[in-house]
Please model this.
Amino acid sequence: MREAYPRIHDLGAAVLTVGTAAGWQAAALMDASRGRAALPFPCVVDPDHNVYRTFGFGRVRWWQWLTPRLWRNYLRAFGRGSRQGKVTGDVGQLPGVAIVGRDRRVRYLYRARTVGDYPPVEALLEALDEGRP
Model:
């Protein structure tokens, strides 16, 4: 999302990331002293999972913990440096992406099937472009 943010901004959209981790980790992701690595958009924490429940984002099933794909995705996230220090929050919470219009209607919804499952950025840009007035 960081790399696509200029195009998202050009489409008149804003980005808000929501996580279950500690507040200090969200602040670290936005810290300008990180230079280009800092997120150019807000990162907030939802420890009560309100946003996740609202959009119906699921949880890792017990059997998924036994799959190589889940562990590969976790290791890839660590390799990219997308974690801020120790693991906090809810490791069983699956991610998702929602695009909500100014009228508060959901324009696009993607519910992950496993950890690290995100839609292609191009799909998000296309959905944003379709929703422009």
